[in-house]
Design a protein that fits this description.
By secondary structure, the chain is of the alpha+beta class. Helix content is 38%, strand content 22%.
């Protein structure tokens, strides 16, 4: 529970994962996976022949991964690419667990969403590749939270209000607490304005102090 002003924000883990962040949301990244347990979003999934046309089956595992990476880089016009690893129900781009594919961002998707003016304003000094990699990491982090059931929501009993579908247990980073505070601020602002108007009317009509309605959130 978190206290804000005179209100209590109760945070709970949702028993429903909610919308699938890879299927129900628009993403800039594309997952290319050779694992049947992970949906491959790439239309031209590579075959062994694509990666190793000489049929040299003495490749090491590192050669194999590098071959797949080279395939995506040469076949797709991309601005950034990162490895995709799975550790139980979690996914990451940091190399933890077994590699199940890659996530990459097509150059045209990046250019459709971000122009140089936006880059200069919000990410001065960063290259397009750095910005794209940060976005890809964020997408996989959200996917990982969804996959492992780390979906949260809040209730504010005093307002009979609630909201769900925030990913990750860092409630500042997920935006959960910001949303809860904004909900409280909006309610207090409107109730304060309403109370002040009623108070003016009571003063104008010379209503005695003991008969005046008290402020709800005092």
């Amino acid at each position: 529970m978190v206290k804000y002003k005179t209100f209590t924000i109760s945070i709970e883990q949702d028993h429903i994962r909610g919308l699938h962040p890879r299927k129900d949301w628009d993403n800039l990244g594309v997952i290319a996976s050779w694992d049947t347990a992970v949906d491959c979003e790439c239309s031209n999934k590579p075959t062994d022949e694509d990666e190793n046309p000489t049929n040299d089956w003495n490749w090491t595992e590192e050669d194999f991964w590098n071959g797949r990476k080279a395939y995506y880089i040469t076949q797709q016009k991309i601005v950034a690419i990162l490895p995709l690893h799975q550790w139980y129900e979690d996914f990451n781009t940091e190399g933890k667990g077994r590699q199940v594919g890659f996530i990459y961002m097509p150059r045209d998707k990046f250019q459709e969403n971000f122009d140089q003016a936006w880059i200069d304003k919000y990410h001065p000094g960063k290259s397009k590749q750095e910005i794209a990699r940060d976005i890809l990491k964020s997408e996989i982090e959200t996917y990982s939270h969804w996959s492992s059931g780390e979906v949260y929501g809040f209730t504010i009993d005093e307002l009979d209000d609630s909201c769900w579908g925030f990913f990750g247990d860092d409630h500042e980073k997920s935006g959960l607490l910001d949303h809860a505070r904004e909900t409280i601020d909006w309610e207090v602002k409107n109730k304060t304005a309403y109370h002040l108007q009623r108070l003016k009317n009571m003063i104008r009509n010379k209503v005695p102090f003991d008969k005046r309605i008290s402020y709800k959130y005092s």
